[in-house]
Amino acid sequence: IDVFLARSLLEKLYLFQYPIRPASMTYDDVTHLSAKIKPKQQKVELEMAIDTLNPNYCRSKGEQIALNVDGTCTDETSTYSSKLMDKQTFCSSQAASNVSRYAAAVYKKGELHLTPLHGILQLRPSFTYLDKADAKHREREAANEGGDSSQDEAEDDVKQITVRFSRPETEQARQRRVQSYEFLQKRQAEEHWVHLHYYGLKDSRSEHERQYLFSQGHGLAENTELIKSPSEYLMMLMPPSVEEENDKPMAPSNVLSMAQLRTLPLADQIKILMKNVKVMPFANLMSLLGSGTDSTAVLRCIQQVAMLVQGNWVVKSDVLYPKDTSSPHSGVPAEVLCRGRDFVMWKFTQDRWVVRKEVAAVTKLCPEDVKDFLEHMSVARINKGWEFMLPYDEDFVKKHPDIVQRQHMLWMGIQAKLEKVYNLLKEHLTPKKQEAQSAHPLLVSGEQRVNMAKAKVKQNYGQLEKEFQKQKAEMKSNDASAKIDVSNIRIKEEPVSDEEPMDTSAYEGMNNGIVNGLHAEEDSTDSLNGHLPGGCIDRVAQELKAFVSSTFKKQFVLTLSELKRLFNLHLASLPPGHTLFSGISDKMLQDMVLDTGCKQILVPFPPQTAASPDELKVYALWEAGDTYDQHRQVLLEIFSKNYRVRRNVIQNQLSQECGEDLNKQEVDRVLKVCFYSIVGLIQS
């Protein structure tokens, strides 16, 4: 059979699919009264006459519908002028979005002529006349009610009108409005109908148009698309695999292909996995990345997109809520959402349980946002609260203490920010005891606790005694003059109490008083990692002195609390295994401050102040080597006598001591350059 391609009706031919009609009605029985189309939307509306004389037609029902739609009066606006439902409207919808592979075929005299379809439209009955009937019914009811109260409407009441000016529309708001359903509906309604003239099946014009379904020229020059060599024809039937891959449908956005994932860089793989999973142990992450992946590189990348919570990695808030986004529930900006989710993550570093009402009361976010935060990393337990979804990963904490220490410092910095933003109370900062709430409670008697504590003390004592004997032998070999007595070695014993379980191996999974595997003892002056080796002390002192010197050259006056915060941020920026991770106590830090030429300023703060002890300790660089040294020393002397001083007193004192007549602007500049941080502290 010869196949020809007809081009006369290209981009003009539509296929209409009509609904199934009764068997007694044939196509010839249907008369098209009117037709109209919206070309851009490919939307067609046809009005067809109904055969009211057909035995399948219910006349009483047709009269009732016409009465409901038009009422008793008949005019030009009536839908059914014959007082009988004698016509029906059909509206179209697209049956297929891509019709490029569909064609209309006509077979004649051993030849097959194909014409590509421009659209396939399905026609369905339109019931807009029911809306008109409802509108007529409401109008009649309103007229009846209006007749009863016609006298009351004689006098029009004066109503106050509120005038509002619209705000300037932002680009983001405009994009949301353009993509909204109402805007699209409005644009579709604005397109004008193009009225068409319908020609019947046996009309001469229809016969003429049907001739265009045949190819007008049978010459080979006009049908080169169908003249292909066998190899080209085979290529058209079975295209290369590359084209097949391009034609494959895109996977949904929430479906992750592991084959495609492993083609991406390692950092992108980890980010996509954490963004989809939210919470994951490190061992599971390594198994998903495949064999041969370097664990050191994974640790370096995971810290950029996740935080350590109870030994497990939880995706960072700014990864889930990027900048310039907002909550789908409340419209709150991403910055506020990140702060609220960080608070939830921080709470789980303190305890395995979190109460939803407490989070909502602190963050002031809507319940839907808080629920999303909790569902990311925890599971709801009836009458208990929300429990962290994964158990404490003790293996990771033991294998990577440097990572744990670094994450602990980061959490201390986040905690300081949260304290300032949310004004957290002590009850929010203190971890709650979870003996009664533990999913798998361990019943340990008091006698067993005492025995376990004694065994641990003996074990620690034995290790310390061995170290002491080793140091004593070294001192004897070097003819050292100093002698050490065993009684001078202090063994730190943990308190035995029924209220606070001890940190023993029998129930390490409970993690009481542990933040990411480290004891958070802020007031302790001992090193976090025990005693420092003798060879490391000099290197630690040099690093610490360099940090203190550079910090006080940038900010001449600091409180101990602010200095500790800056030191924690400095530790978080250091690489794993740095010498400063060996442990720096508060006393060591204060001694180093005094050794670098700083002095402690005893500011007489009022006794009723709410500041912490670390905030009351003020240190200042006495000599910086600049032109403001004398002014700075005068200011420090002034504030060491009184914590609140008037500006004119400062101006007079500076003029007397420095021999300069300073005006108000010069005094402000001196305060800003020399003493800005301590002035801000005293004002707060």
TrEMBL record:
It holds the Pfam family RPC5. One of its GO terms (biological process) is tRNA transcription by RNA polymerase III. It comes from the Eukaryota. InterPro entries: RNA_pol_III_Rpc5 (IPR006886), RPC5_C (IPR045576). Residues 134-143 have a biased composition (Basic and acidic residues). Residues 432-681 form the DNA-directed RNA polymerase III subunit RPC5 C-terminal domain. Residues 134-157 are annotated as: Disordered. One of its GO terms (cellular component) is RNA polymerase III complex. This is RPC5 polymerase. The lineage of its organism: Eukaryota, Metazoa, Chordata, Craniata, Vertebrata.
